[in-house]
Structures are given as structure tokens and as C-alpha cells.
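yo, Bifunctional ligase/repressor BirA is done. seq:
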Amino acid sequence: MESTKQYVLFELLKGQGEWISGDSLASQLKISRESIWKAINTLKKNGNQIISRKNLGYKYIGNSSLDSDIINFYSHQQFANNIYVFKETSSTQDLAKQFLSKHPVDKPVIFIANQQSQGYGRRGRLFYSPAETGLYFSVILPNPTNDLFQAGLLTTSMSVVISRVLEEFYPEKDFQLKWVNDIYLETRKVAGIITEAVLDLESNSATSFIMGVGINLATKHFPQNLLAKASGISPDKEINRNQLAARMIEEVIKNSQNYTNPELLVEYRRRSNILEKQVTLQLGTQVIKGKAEEIKEDGGLLIRQENGELKKVRSGEVIKVDWDE
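structure:
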């Protein structure tokens, strides 16, 4: 059941940019104008920009902060009570794991942070996650089949889905994919994805997957070691992060049930920025060099090594690409 604050917020969002009478809000809710005024003040304290004018009412301008109620509004209440938003956390992946350790999960649960102090990607590498300029979230995806066989395709498919959503908000950008989980603009990384399986050791099956996404939207300043490797998508463009989060979550969850769709792999190959290029791949303690020739049906990468032999890898990280080839 919606609170007074939520109801007022949703009505303002429906008529965003227009004047909405306080009397009409009070009449619809069958409460006093004073209660509406209190709700408006609470919403303002939560970062919502609302203009008040005598004889006109209230006009909603926006909220630059991430807010679970606004995200729920834009996602049509599909995930109400299953979205948790934090100002700061170590990592949304950690939050998801902690949640799973205490709660049975039979539907997707989402954790979003405005800032991460220990956000990480594959091989535990830190993902720079400053406040206000990015979108960092994790989704628990229950796995009713407990199947691990096609798990490698989940990351490749979600990379495509996330790129598509980003292009809705940045239609002028051409997002490309570096195997297996990085989203690039030209030669710099703007987003990363990590998929971790939650295993049932007795049955050797995956009960859930936790998919984490980190996106540098408007980040301008990076640590010295990342200056040549990472960038924000568009440091000078303001977008509605709550609306982006809602669209991203909707599409990820919808397509997670269909992640083996061959069309997603076709698009992944089309977006790849390493095929036919010389690459260096870290595979555990082993380093492999060669030409990236093909992305296989299971998402694995086929490399022609320097000695001419073909090697297929399902894991590892491409740590260097000869972009000039």
C-alpha cells in the first residue's frame, strides 16, 4: 500500500513539468492540505526538486539522487519491495551475497548504490565507483533450473542488453564490447559486468546468479592508473539516473530468462572490438598471445596463437589489444 509521500510523488511524476493543485491532491487522497504540505517537504528533504506557487500548486522538476520510489515508478512497480538503494556501500555484489545468506529468493532482487568503496570486477579488480557520476547495481537472478551449462552466455547476452539500453539514453554513442564483460567507447572502458554463481555444493548446481554492473556515466576524474584506460560516457550530459536504472533493470531481468537467444550472440559478435585483432589474454597464471578469430556458440573465445595453433578459452581476461590493427 502506498504511503501519502509515495502517492504524492507518483502524482507529481505523472505530471512532471506541469502544475498540480494541492487541493486536487488532497481531494484524491481524502486528507488535509497540511498533510500534502508535509509530504511535499519530506520529498524535498529526500532530494526531490519541487517548486511551489500560490494559486498554481506544485511542479516536479527532478531528483539527481537515486531513489527507490522513483525507480519503482519508472519500472511500473514491477519490482516494488525488491529494490534497495544505498548512498554508499562497499559493493552491491557484497550486499546481494549478504542478502542471499539470510533470505530465500524466488524472484529478482536489486541493490543499487550511489557510490562504492570496494566495487570490483573479474579477478577481484577494483572498479572505480565515485558518487553522483555513475550507476552501480547488482541483481540476484534466481536459477530455477539450477543449470550451469550455459552460464557463460549470461554475461555476453547481458553485455548486449546493457549496451542497447545505454544507446537509448546516448543515441549518438557506439558502444562496443571487449570479451568477455567490458563495454567500451573507442579504446576506453566505460562499463563492466560481473556474473557470479551461487552454488549448492551438495548438488553442484547454481541456485542463483548475481550480476553486477558498474557504469561510468559522467565521471571526469579517474585515478592515475586508469587515465589511459577508462572514461565516462558523456561527462557533460545530464541524464535521469533513476529512469536509466529502471530501464536497465527491466531489460536485464526480462532478457535473463532468454539469455541463450542466438540473436544476442550475433549482436555480441557484431559489437566486439577485439575480433581479428592481436590480443594478450591472462588465463590464471598463463599468458596467451594471438589473434582473436571467433566467439563460439557458448561465448568462448577462439584465439590463433603465435605458433599457429587454435585455442578456445571460456574464461580469462583480455589484458591488451592491438587497437591499430
